[in-house]
Prior knowledge:
This protein has one helix at residues 5-11, and strands at 19-32, 36-40, 45-51, 53-55, 65-67, 77-79, 83-85, 93-99, 112-114, 117-120, 126-130, 139-142, 148-151, 157-170. The longest helix is centred in the first third of the chain and has 7 residues, at 5-11. The protein has 171 residues and is mainly β. The chain folds into two domains: 17-33 and 133-170, no CATH class; 39-105, no CATH class. The strands form seven sheets. The chain has a two-stranded antiparallel sheet with strand order 1-14.
Amino acid sequence: xxRFLPLLLLLASTPAYSNVVHKLTSSTKLITxxxxxxxxxxxxxYTVSGSNIKISAVNGSVFGGLTAPTSVTAxxxxxxxxxxxxxxxSAFSFSESFQQGDxxxxxxxxxxxxxxxxxxxxxxxxxxxxxxGVAGSLAGTTVANHTSTCTGGGAxxxxxxxxxxxxxLLD
Length: 171
């Protein structure tokens, strides 16, 4: 019997003292994107350059440029210059350009959104528009046994299901 005592001691189990945390989490996330529009007004610009050119005294002596608008929502307009060759018979160069600027839209006008779709926009020099999403048949479920389902919606929608199993061993 004394011979079996060491063997019995080896077979005896010792209790383990540790904490185990096991978490199971399921989730469903549904997203319908919103419509947006980003615009930048284009400026009114006027440029003139040249050599051997002068302002013409015959036609009113006016240098070209921009004229301030009469309304706060209007864009600047071009004032035509009157130019002439400075030294007759000599070489000359002349360049004049004008770009009409964008008008200012009154407050509460511009982009109209209906059912996630941008129906109309203000016309500006640079405009980026995203019409957004329409939920349509977008749906998702998560049930007690961690089974998840997603049903796609219209454009601009997404559905994400997630299942997480987390095990922590604490001292």
